[in-house]
Write a structure and sequence with these properties.
Layout (H helix, E strand, L loop, with lengths): L2 H21 L10 H27 L2 E2 L2 H5 L5 E2 L3 H7 L2 H32 L4 H16 L2 H11 L6 H6 L10 H30 L2 H9 L4 H12 L1 H16 L3 H6 L12 H11 L3 H28 L5
Antiparallel strand pairs: 1-2
Length: about 325
């Protein structure tokens, strides 16, 4: 073939390839509505399960919505921010909010400490003890909150509970005092929450190269120093996830407090925001007021999560 023929053939192939490339679909830039069609089922489910309930919660919070409106005896009345004004002017709300923040912080710290410690322990024991610990932890994780709360109440029962007998406390009531009741609920919350932290952190530790840990051990680092200086920085994205999850779970606790303290303790001394909102909405039939407390709880959780993510971004973490 002559040089002229070769050049013509090459130009022909280039034109064909160019035509194919122009007619072929573009996976990103020219996809149009393609990705949204794939995401549509998930977006519909999220809209039905998340967005719409939040919308209804906010809508009810700006109306006077009591039992009279539910039964149809009176029409609903728009009150704007009136329910929020009533909430913020109530001294009990601020005391309950403070108790909720303190209790949730104690639960988060305790859950992370127990979960991380047991995750490290799983890497140090043999296969059979590791399997037994994993099964026991997953059993605690799978136990319904009502069942777990009832079991813990029986363990610390002043008349029949084995804990008082072992400790020689007689008929001491753990749910009578404010702080002892919060401590008892904290134990149950940590018991049913640490497996998530343990399994997640354990999976992260197993992904760390063994050479890194061996090098730290050869340098004379203790187990605590290895965790603080080697594992914790490498596991920071995982720790971020379990921390945010724990904050959300522990801040909106309802079942454990309601079951173990009989609806909030004596004279409401063990109230948290979710139980307080339940009492206002259903016990007092002030549904608009309860919805306003729910919106405030949602905004507090959102603010805490955003602040935590901002602090991590300042430290150079990729989110």
């Amino acid at each position: 073939m002559t040089p002229t023929g070769v050049g013509a053939a090459v130009r022909g192939r280039v034109r064909v390839r160019g035509g194919l490339s122009r007619s072929s679909p573009r996976p990103y830039g020219g996809a149009g509505w393609g990705p949204w069609l794939y995401l549509a089922p998930a977006l519909v489910v999220l809209g039905g399960l998340l967005v719409y309930p939040i919308y209804q919660l906010g809508l009810i919070s700006v109306f006077r919505y009591t039992q009279a409106q539910v039964s149809g005896g009176e029409p609903t009345a728009f009150v704007g921010l009136g329910n929020y004004s009533d909430v913020f002017s109530d001294d009990q709300f601020w005391s309950v909010l403070l108790a909720t923040v303190g209790f949730a912080a104690a639960c988060v710290v305790s859950t992370l400490a127990v979960g991380c410690a047991l995750a490290v322990l799983l890497t140090r024991v043999r296969a059979l003890p590791r399997l037994a610990l994993m099964l026991a932890a997953l059993g605690a994780w799978a136990t319904p909150a009502v069942t777990g709360s009832t079991v813990w109440l029986f363990l610390f029962d002043p008349d029949f509970g084995p804990v008082n007998r072992l400790l020689g406390l007689g008929d001491h009531s753990w749910t009578y005092g404010r702080y002892s009741a919060f401590f008892l609920v904290l134990l149950e919350v940590v018991w049913c929450s640490f497996p998530f932290v343990m399994v997640t952190v354990y999976a992260g530790i197993r992904a760390v190269p063994a050479e890194v840990l061996e090098a730290a051990a050869l340098d004379g680092a203790s187990q605590w120093r290895i965790w603080r200086s080697v594992l914790a920085p490498m596991l920071r994205p995982i720790l971020m996830v379990v921390t945010i999850q724990s904050v959300i779970w522990d801040f909106k606790i309802f079942t454990q407090i309601y079951v173990m303290t009989g609806g909030g303790g004596i004279a409401g001394q063990n109230l948290v925001l979710n139980v307080y909102a339940y009492q206002q909405a259903f016990a007092s039939s002030q549904y608009g007021l309860g919805a306003a407390i729910g919106v405030v709880t949602l905004l507090v959780l959102l603010a805490v999560t955003l602040v935590y993510l901002r602090l991590l971004r300042r430290q150079g973490e990729e989110l």
